[in-house]
C-alpha cells in the first residue's frame, strides 16, 4: 500500500482485513490511536522538553537522542506485551518526535542519504563519524541563502552534525580552523535557524533545519519528510516483530470485530448448567484468539435475582476466562430472572443506520422478549 495523500484509516483497516464484511469494520479505535500518537508527538514541542536539545537532536546530541529513542522503544514493547496500549501509544508519540526531528535537524539529508539512519533504533550499533564539539561544520549564509552553508569537507567526509538552538543565548561552541597564515578559533558551528533561534544571528549565521518549506533548508523539506516517514515505518516494524502481529494490531487500535459480551445467569437454578455455559464460553473465546475475529475487548455481565452485575471489562482473554471460571450459582428461587437488566444497551451516534434493513428484526425481538 502506497503511503501518500490518499492513505486513510479506513483504507488501512480494509487492507488488514480484506476478507471481512466492511459493515463489521470500524476505524474509530484506529483513529483514536492515531490521535493519541499524534498528540503526544507534537506535545514534545511544549513544556520543558522544548528546551532540551536531546529531544530534537539539536546541539549535536546524537548519543543522548538515540538513547531516548531506544529506551522509549523498550518501554513501548513492554507496555504492548502487558496490554497497556494507552501508555504504549503515548510513549510512541514522544519517541517518534525525536526520531523524525533527526532528519529535519541534522545534515543526514544534505549528505544525499535516501534511507533512514537505522542505528538510531538499534542500541547495539556504535554511532560513528559524528562531528565533535571542536569540528567546524558551517559557514555564513550568503544574502539569506543557506543552501550551501554546510562546509564541503563535512559533507564529503560524511560527518554527522546538527544545528544549535537557543531562544535566549547566541553562543555556540568554538571550532578550530586554518587560514593561509595561522590557526584561528571562533564559532563555526551550524545553527538550527529561524526567527526564534538566537544562535543563528551569530557567525556562522543562518541555519540548516528543514522543518517546513520556509525553513533555512526548506528546499530539502520534502526529502527529509520522506526519509522520516520511512524511518517511522522501520521503527513500527521493529515493534511489530517484537510483540507479534495480533498484539501490534491491537496496539494500533486495528480490529475487525466488536466487543465480545457474555451475559450469564448465576442463580441457583443454573447449578446443573453453569459448567456447560462456561465450557461453551471458553470455546467461543479460544476459537477467535489469534484470528482476525479476535475481539478488541471482553465484557462479562452476570445476573441473579434480584440483582445483576458487577460488569467486568478487559482486553485480556485469559483474565476474562478467569472471571467466568469464578462464577458460582446461588440465590434465586423463582423462575423469572433479571436477564434483561443485564442486557441494557444504549447506542449513541451522529449518523443514520447503514443497516436499517435490520430494523424490523430488532423490533420483532423487542416485542418477543418484552424488552421495553
TrEMBL record:
Domain Hemicentin-1-like von Willebrand factor A: 260-371
Main location: secreted
Keywords: Secreted, Signal
Record's protein name: von Willebrand factor A domain-containing protein 7-like
Signal peptide extent: none
Annotated localization: Secreted
Cross-referenced Pfam families: VWA7_N, VWA_4
Amino acid at each position: 500500500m502506497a503511503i501518500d495523500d490518499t492513505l486513510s484509516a479506513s483504507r488501512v483497516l480494509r487492507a488488514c482485513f480484506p476478507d471481512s464484511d466492511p459493515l463489521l469494520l470500524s476505524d474509530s479505535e484506529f483513529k483514536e490511536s492515531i490521535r493519541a500518537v499524534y498528540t503526544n508527538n507534537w506535545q514534545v514541542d511544549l513544556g520543558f522538553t522544548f528546551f532540551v536539545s536531546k529531544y530534537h537532536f539539536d546541539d549535536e546530541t546524537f548519543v543522548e537522542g538515540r538513547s531516548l529513542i531506544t529506551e522509549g522503544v523498550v518501554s513501548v514493547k513492554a507496555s504492548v506485551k502487558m496490554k497497556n496500549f494507552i501508555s504504549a501509544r503515548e510513549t510512541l508519540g514522544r519517541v517518534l518526535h525525536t526520531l523524525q526531528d533527526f532528519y529535519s535537524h541534522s545534515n543526514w539529508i544534505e549528505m544525499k542519504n535516501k534511507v533512514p539512519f537505522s542505528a538510531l533504533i538499534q542500541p547495539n550499533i556504535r554511532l560513528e563519524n559524528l562531528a565533535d564539539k571542536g569540528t567546524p561544520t558551517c559557514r555564513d549564509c550568503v544574502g539569506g541563502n543557506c543552501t550551501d552553508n554546510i562546509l564541503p569537507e563535512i559533507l564529503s567526509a560524511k560527518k554527522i552534525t546538527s544545528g544549535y538552538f537557543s531562544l535566549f543565548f547566541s553562543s555556540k561552541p568554538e571550532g578550530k580552523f586554518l587560514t593561509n597564515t595561522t590557526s584561528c578559533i571562533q564559532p563555526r558551528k551550524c545553527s538550527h535557524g529561524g526567527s526564534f533561534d538566537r544562535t543563528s544571528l551569530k557567525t556562522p549565521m543562518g541555519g540548516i533545519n528543514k522543518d517546513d518549506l520556509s525553513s533555512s533548508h526548506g528546499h530539502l523539506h520534502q526529502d527529509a519528510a520522506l526519509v522520516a516517514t520511512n524511518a517511522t515505518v522501520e521503527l513500527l516494524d521493529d515493534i511489530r516483530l517484537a510483540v507479534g502481529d495480533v498484539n501490534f494490531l491491537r496496539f494500533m487500535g486495528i480490529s475487525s470485530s466488536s466487543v465480545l459480551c457474555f451475559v450469564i445467569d448465576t442463580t441457583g437454578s443454573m447449578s446443573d448448567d453453569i459448567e456447560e455455559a462456561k465450557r461453551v464460553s471458553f470455546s467461543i473465546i479460544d476459537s477467535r484468539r489469534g484470528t482476525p475475529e479476535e475481539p478488541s475487548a471482553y465484557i462479562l455481565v452476570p445476573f441473579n435475582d434480584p440483582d445483576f452485575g458487577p460488569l467486568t471489562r478487559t482486553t485480556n482473554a485469559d483474565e476474562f476466562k478467569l472471571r467466568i471460571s469464578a462464577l458460582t450459582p446461588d440465590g434465586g428461587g423463582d423462575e423469572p430472572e433479571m436477564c434483561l437488566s443485564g442486557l441494557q444497551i444504549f447506542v449513541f451516534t451522529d449518523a443514520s443506520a447503514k443497516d436499517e434493513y435490520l430494523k424490523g428484526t430488532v423490533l420483532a425481538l423487542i416485542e418477543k422478549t418484552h424488552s421495553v
